[in-house]
Amino acid sequence: MKNFISWFEIPVNDFNRAVKFYKAILEVDITEQEIFGTKMGFLPSDGKNVSGAIVKGEDYVPSSSGVMVYLNGGDDLKKILDRVEPNKGKIIVPKTQISPEMGYFSIFIDTEGNKIALHSIS
User: Fold this and answer.
1) Angle, CA 96 vertex, CA 92 and CA 100 arms, to 5°
2) Given this structure, which CATH class describes domain 7-120?
3) Using one digit for the tens of pLDDT, what is the confidence trace for 7-40?
4) Which of 111, 113, 108, 84 is nearest to 96 (CA)?
5) How many secondary structure helices (H) and strands (E) does the chain include?
6) In contact, 110 and 10? CB cutoff 8 Å
7) Which residues of 41-65 are buried (b: 16+ CB within 10 A; e: fewer)?
8) Assessment of whether the complete model's pTM goes beyond 0.70
9) Rounded to 5 degrees, what angle do the CA atoms 81, 67, 17 make?
10) Is the separation of the CB atoms in 12 and 20 below 8 Å?
11) CB distance 91 to 105 below 8 Å
12) Closest CA to 110 of 7, 11, 8
């Protein structure tokens, strides 16, 4: 087993707003599809690494108090952070060094009320 996480889903209330937000802050394409009555916006994946989706369905409830997902912040998570608030998210922990070896993290609230973290080495 290479990763303990194989897939994640970010629950949303307003699917279109959430897809727009994540496209803007991550600067990625999100493939939209409906599966078994659930709207899903798939984040890019190479099929070898962990990925996930934005999901809207009957049992999906956004939360800032449950499990927290750490998204890959790329070379410098500040680039993503700089796009969070202009796209109606809220930064609650700015870029903060964990240690020189472990890099940096940050936490934000997305447009749906989910608490999401970012991690980068620099």
Assistant:
1) 160
2) alpha beta
3) 999 999 999 999 999 999 999 999 999 999 999 9
4) 108
5) 2, 8
6) yes
7) bebeeeeeeebbbbbbbeebebeee
8) yes
9) 50
10) no
11) no
12) 11
Per domain, the residue ranges of the chain are 7-120
Cβ–Cβ < 8 Å for 109, 66: no
Pull the structure tokens for residue 93.
Answer: 């922990």
pLDDT in 10s for each residue of the chain, 122 residues: 577 889 999 999 999 999 999 999 999 999 999 999 999 999 999 988 899 999 999 999 999 999 999 999 999 999 999 999 999 999 999 999 999 999 999 999 999 999 999 999 99
Compute the residue count for the chain: 122
Tell the residue number behind the tokens 């990925």, with chain if given: 51
- 102 contact partners, CB below 8 Å, separation of at least 6: none
Q: Whose CA is closest to 41, among 12, 61, 26, 19?
A: 19
Q: Are 63 and 76 in contact (CB under 8 A)?
A: no
Collapse the DSSP code of 87 into the 3-class scheme (helix H, G, I; strand E, B; otherwise coil) and give the result: helix
> Could you tell me which residues are beta bridge partners of residue 8?
52
Whole-number pLDDT of residue 80: 97
